[in-house]
């Protein structure tokens, strides 16, 4: 699960770089949403990974 989260957060960052750079105005808003969604998923997976007994 952590591997998928890291993969998706990297994709969101790459999409953010293209979107924030002015290549596509619509891509910027989508990238912002994806970035924050996957950032939250990444933090949740880190927390749940450490509490495994």
Structure overview:
This is DUF1328 domain-containing protein. It holds the Pfam family DUF1328. Keywords: Cell membrane, Membrane, Transmembrane, Transmembrane helix. It is built from two helices and no strands. It has about 55 residues and is mostly helical. The chain is elongated. The mean pLDDT is about 75.
Report Rg: 13 Å
Mean pLDDT: 76
The helix fraction, in percent, is over 70%
Q: What profile does the largest beta sheet have?
A: none
Our count of helices gives 2
Strand content: under 5%
In total, how many beta strands? 0
Structural class: mainly alpha
Q: What are the low-pLDDT stretches, counting only 5+ consecutive residues below 50?
A: none
Distance between the termini: 17 Å
Rough outline: elongated
* Order of secondary-structure elements: HH
Transmembrane segments: 6-26, 33-51
Protein name: DUF1328 domain-containing protein
Keywords: Cell membrane, Membrane, Transmembrane, Transmembrane helix
Labels describing this entry:
53 residues; mainly alpha; 2 helices; elongated; cell membrane; membrane; transmembrane
